[in-house]
Write a structure and sequence with these properties.
single chain; mainly alpha; two-stranded parallel sheet; 151 residues
Length: 151
């Protein structure tokens, strides 16, 4: 996309604008590219600083878990315990809570991969005007799988 961002400063939230108060970069035509538009709004579900506007209610908790995994350590507990001990570097979370948050992150990552694929495909088609996609032959029903076992 030739955004001119140094590699160490590229993040999911900051890639869209040159600075927080600047307009969206011209390379991202969000009016036409539905994949990038969806990625832009999905990026709002991630917290990078305490002043970020976020849509995802669990974003602050996910960010706290990420921070402890990266810089401190995380305790996963079966029973209820306090979140922080006195002068403790650990964050303690319940296993059920941790599993729920992990599943939420996997859903967000899956959505991001799908939106990115759609956005890149759109950009490739837009940049190569003579590009035509290969039509895929539809797969019809098969007799080798019983109807009761089909999804």
């Amino acid at each position: 996309m030739a955004l001119g961002i140094p590699e160490k400063y590229v993040t999911f939230r900051t890639v869209w604008r040159g600075a927080k108060d600047k307009p969206i970069r011209s390379q991202f035509d969000l009016n036409l590219n539905g994949g990038y538009c969806a990625l832009f709004w999905l990026a709002k579900d991630f917290l990078e600083s305490e002043t970020d506007d976020i849509a995802e209610p669990q974003a602050r908790e996910l960010n706290e878990i990420r921070n402890h995994l990266e810089h401190k350590y995380l305790r996963v507990s079966i029973s209820a315990t306090p979140k922080h001990g006195p002068d403790d570097l650990a964050l303690t979370v319940l296993r059920v809570e941790f599993e729920s948050k992990a599943l939420q992150l996997m859903r967000l990552a899956r959505a991001a991969l799908i939106y990115l694929t759609i956005g890149v495909r759109f950009e490739e088609a837009r940049r190569a005007p003579n590009y035509t996609s290969d039509e895929l032959e539809p797969i019809g029903p098969t007799d080798s799988i019983p109807l009761s076992e089909r999804i």
